[in-house]
């Protein structure tokens, strides 16, 4: 079936190609119009309306619309709108063109109805987003971008391998439920795709690309990065692996381990990176539980997370943009001259911490309730611990060390207006969704009655959060809270940034010394042969000595005599 | 870059004022547990002030464990610079 509507990515790709030729207000107009036109274009769409065609005998579906893809479609347009406003002051074609390609690719991925299309956009997302890291134009960012690209492309290769196996096995390329319960080749394929998605979901041990690259990208680039890649991966996971119990445990680990890192991390954007893995953990858990409520909770949380995490990244981007610093040890006291940024950051902090009336509360509580209702009591306790932890580092640590704490003496003003407007829109949405949750619930894939605002939920959540804050105050007053130190913490990146290079050096040195030894031995042998040859054929050699000229004349005489005698005998 | 202007939290009495309000809210939330009946699923939820205790203990544990982890994981800022 063909529809008149164009796949949403087309708009962004065309605009990305045209953008370098636009200047001044035309450029602003083009950039701002894109997400508005694209977003409104989605509103009229009916579920099931798709664009389909056939290639090499396989049906491709580059534009599939259902409730799940539509929700992420809306979300990505909102994120694009906020991100574009936030980066409107940027005069860098590389960044803005890359951002438009990146948004388009992410939209392409969530509307992809088949595995081939998904793979293409999966890789386009990887490449385009890398330029947002490189655009920082520092050596660190360049190196970080390469690491990011290699890991993202590996995810793509796994997806390609898995997809090829599945297509070979099933004879069609549709991207639907996959699960981990197949047999034979299908089983291998399902695992390959699972890991491919898992890498981009920042599964434990595969997570380090996120904290590495998001901390090195440009202030505006990180805002885009934080919105699309991981959420597209969550979307894919929700479509292909809902109810896979393993995800519950992976999600639990994801909610838990990053909060320890976040407490001791100095780079505040890296703290937000860890906090993002923690939030992704809640979503993965929800997908793993697999009930209508938990999957609704997972995708609702993806929706709210893009906005409040975007807001937090924007506020830290504003701090970096204005002060040129982002380490907690070098910041503090900025509330004095950046009051608007401080308030907007606090709204983001309240939202991620899931305070009642803020967006995180209406989405995260669904996952928590589902875990409890399905009998995952141990998991629920861990998630509760992680909820307290996220408030501790993202809710308190981020605003406290940036805007309050000890006075760094920095007196910079609030950022440019476009940045403030973008943050204000995100902050408004955080409160709006938190108070009008039914609008969000109405977009979710399943119809489930859920009331986040009852006295039990509100009281429980307030107690949890206020006493987490009390713990922070107590630890600070006791001097037990770990100070922000100029340092880094080693993580799984140590394997490929330290262990592999060191091992390579050891191998190289070993090779060099072995090769050196072999060379020396060979030299000796060859020298020996050389000497022997010289002994026989050299100036003083045996042959040289015996073949003196007079001997040669004598020998010639002998031959001639022999020839003469032979001749005489023949005559007779 | 620094100036001599006094801001809100530069005055210790303002800090303690905000903290007193904060402590009062904490107290009220625990007291509310007496009057408000929470619907519970897990047996631990029936403990008086369960969420308050859990939140406090969780965060203290988190920070103290993280401090120990720091001893193992922390490196100089230029640790990877010789790449």
Description:
The complex is a heterodimer of chains A (572) and B (83). Chain A is an all-alpha fold and 572 residues long. Chain A folds into three domains: 1-241, no CATH class; 243-491, no CATH class; 496-571. Chain A contains 21 helices and three strands. Chain A starts with 7 loop residues before the first helix and ends with a helix. Chain B is mainly alpha-helical and 83 residues long. Chain B has one domain (8-73). The model of chain B has no long low-confidence stretch (mean pLDDT 88).
* Assembly state: heterodimer
Query: Major sheet of chain B: size, sense and barrel closure?
Result: none
The rough form of chain B would be described as flat
Strand order of the largest sheet of chain A: 1-2
How would you characterize the largest beta sheet of chain A?
2 strands, antiparallel
DSSP strand count of chain B: 1
- Range of strand content of chain B: under 5%
Largest interface: A-B, 57 and 52 residues
Strand tally of chain A: 3
Tell me the span between the first and last alpha carbons of chain B. 36 Å
Which structural class do you get from the secondary structure elements of chain B?
mainly alpha
Uncertain spans of chain A, ≥5 residues at pLDDT below 50? none
Tell me what portion of residues of chain A adopts beta-strand conformation.
under 5%
List low-pLDDT spans of chain B: none
Tally of helical segments of chain B:
2
Order of helices and strands of chain A: HHEEHHHHHHHHHHHHHHHHEHHH
- As for the number of domains of chain B, it is 1
Rg from alpha-carbon coordinates of chain A? 34 Å
H/E series of chain B, N to C?
A: HHE
Radius of gyration of CA atoms of chain B, rounded to a whole number: 21 Å
Amount of helix of chain B: 55-70%
